[in-house]
User: Which sequence fits this backbone?
């Protein structure tokens, strides 16, 4: 009976160790978006001139219910003219 109790305890300790090993991976995963924004963030294509630029530098506009991104206001104006 005591042996069984020890086994259960060992199993529980082993389980909490495994959980402890999984958790740091989760916190690393949480850090990922930060490093992503530092290195190379999401790139968007300007549909007017075809230029790829980072999302934070793009001018976003909702055209015909679709979110579009432009490199400049000039491109946005030109695109709006044609659509
Ligand atoms: Zn452009």
Assistant:
């Amino acid at each position: 009976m005591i042996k069984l109790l020890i086994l259960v305890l060992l199993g529980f300790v082993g389980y909490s160790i495994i959980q402890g090993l999984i958790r740091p991976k989760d916190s690393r995963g949480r850090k990922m978006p930060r490093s992503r924004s530092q290195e190379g963030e999401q790139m968007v294509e300007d549909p007017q001139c075809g230029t790829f630029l980072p999302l934070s530098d793009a001018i976003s506009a909702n055209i015909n219910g679709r979110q579009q991104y432009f490199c400049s206001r000039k491109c946005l104006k030109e695109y709006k003219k044609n659509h």
About this structure: The longest helix spans residues 2-39.
